[in-house]
Structures are given as structure tokens and as C-alpha cells.
Amino acid sequence: MADRSWIVFFATFFSLIGVLNASAGDSDPEYRACVGQCEKTGCVADKCFQHCRFSSDGVPVDGPWYMQEPLYLRWKQWDCQSDCRYHCMVNREKEREIAGYKPVKYHGKWPFKRVFGLQEPASVAFSALNLAVQFHGWVSFFILLYYKLPLRQNKKTYYEYTGLWHIYGLLSMNSWFWSAFFHSRDVDLTESLDYSSAVALLGYTLILAIIRTFNVRDEATRVMVSAPLIAFVTTHILYLNFYQFDYGWNMKVCIVMGVAQLLLWAVWAGITRHPSRWKLWVVVLGGGLAMLLEIYDFPPYWEYLDAHALWHASTIPLSYLWWSFIRDDAEYRTMNLVKKAK
């Protein structure tokens, strides 16, 4: 489906290729020398940073880091090392551009220009828009079920998958929220939250794909299907966060879960007579084509817009169409059940 669920395994696969290999930029001797000098002096060329003040033995002159750099200042101004890396990268890229060279990656990332302290402003903006689309889709789904479609005598909905899609909406919004944070500031904490929320969403959407495509309505059967997958995803997230953040293993897990649910939705769209199956086909095929942006990686245009940011942009209309399919499915199932009840 068209957000950080079944397509996240593609992003994981292609983005981690750059992480697992050393980047050309941070291997550049001139860049490394600049960073080393900056961390000693607190300056890059004529630009100096007040939170990079050290004594001769390397101890901050203003006392411990928690007295010198409050958390809100660290988020707004970054810390000494990240500022040194950023400004050395900017200066080095200017030198490379004058010499006629193309941009290269630094520490696994293209050289982006900050906007209000945001590390990847375009990806942040598109992640925020995806969050807005997920919120709109979830609210419109809620309004359709409880205010437009018939309800049972006990005020519950006829649609058997109501609760499952509510959980999906919450997990999707949570995932895009942390995606925006991660792209605004790439540190260990935001990376962990982004990867963990994406894996949780991916695992849940696999469960949801199995239950919906096989039309599992019995609660006991749903528990039997969900329990082992929930246990596995939970263990995997704990392993990443508290034992070893293994990018390669996480990539394999994401690929398996992503391929499994993609195949389920594709086969179901091919054999079902659902009136809105065309929307599902558009989402599946559109999501696959959007992944070409992850394959064709290129430096950011105007220092802001790269392939990954455009991939985030492409998921916005696909996510909107996906929620449209969910609403159609709810209406289709509800009207069929109402007819049977009469």
C-alpha cells in the first residue's frame, strides 16, 4: 500500500546500500582535515560556533555539556560535531563545484542545505503532508462509518474491519510523524524511532492484509494469525533498539514482510469482484513505479530535492487513493450486510 507500510522495504533496501558502504565525501582527506580542525578550534574558515569552545585539554570551558548546551539549543543550533561536519561539507562542496565535480554523499547522505535547522527540509515537508493525508483519511473513514452508513442496533458498525483500520490509521500517523522528525535531525534517537515505527507499521499491515484478503472474521482465527507476527515484530524491534542495530537484518525482515503483503493485495485485486479494485491496482502499481525513485538516486536539485524526497512526495496522492479504497470497501461491505440482514 502507498505509504510507509508495504513500500518501506524498498526504501530500506536502497537507502541502506549507502549506509553499509563508506561515503565518498566523508572519506575525502580535505573534508576530514577540516572537521578535525574545527573540532579543535570551533571554527570553519571565518565562521565560529559558540558551543564549540574548548580548553587546551579538550574540556568544555563552560562546564558539563548539560550546563553548556540545553536540549532545546542542541536541537535548534545542533552540536559542535554536527555543525563542524555541516559547514565543512558546505565549503568542500563549493570547492568541488568550482573544480567541476559533481556532489558526493557525506556519512551516507547527500549534501542538503538546512532550512531553519532542518537537515532535509523537502523530506520533512513531504512527511508532514503524508501525515496530514493519513489524518484526513482516518477522520473521513470515521465520519463515513458512524455518521453516514447504517449502524447496528447496539450502535456498532456493520463493517467487520473497523477496529483494524482505526489501528492502521494511528500507526500510519505515528510513522509519518517520526519520519518528519528523523529527516529534520538525524541522530540515534530519531533514527531508532523512525525505523521502529516503520517496522511496526509494516508488520501490522501484513497482519491486516492477511485478515482482509482472506476475509477472516472469526476473532479466534484473527488472534491465531496475529499473535506470532506481533511476537516476531516486537522481538525484532527490541533486538534493534536494545541489542544491535543491524541494518542488514532489518533490511531482510522488511523485504520479506513487504513482499508478502504486496503479493497478497495484488492477487486479491486480480481475483476479487470488488467495485473499487481499480483503486487498489493503481496504488499497487503506482507504489511500484514510485520505487524507481529509490533506485535512480541522484544529488538534490537546488540543494533540497533528491530522489528520496520525491518518493515521499509520490506517496501523498497514493495514500489519499488508498484511504478512498478503504472507505469504498467499508461502504461496499456494509451495504451487503444490511441487505442480508433484511
Strand content: under 5%
Total DSSP E strands: 2
Return the domain count: 2
* Structural class label: mainly alpha
Can you tell me the CATH architecture of the largest domain?
Up-down Bundle
Q: Mind telling me the CATH class of the largest domain?
A: Mainly Alpha
Alpha carbon gap, first and last residue: 35 Å
CATH level-3 fold name of the largest domain = Rhopdopsin 7-helix transmembrane proteins
The biggest beta sheet is recorded as: 2 strands, antiparallel
Q: Can you count the helices?
A: 13
Mean pLDDT: 80
Radius of gyration: 24 Å
Strand order of the largest sheet: 1-2
- SSE topology string: HHEEHHHHHHHHHHH
Helix-residue proportion: 55-70%
Low-confidence stretches: 9-21, 54-61, 63-70
Overall body shape: elongated
GO cellular component, one term: Golgi membrane
Membrane topology: Multi-pass membrane protein
Function: Involved in the lipid remodeling steps of GPI-anchor maturation.
Transmembrane segments: 124-146, 158-181, 193-211, 223-243, 249-271, 278-296, 308-326
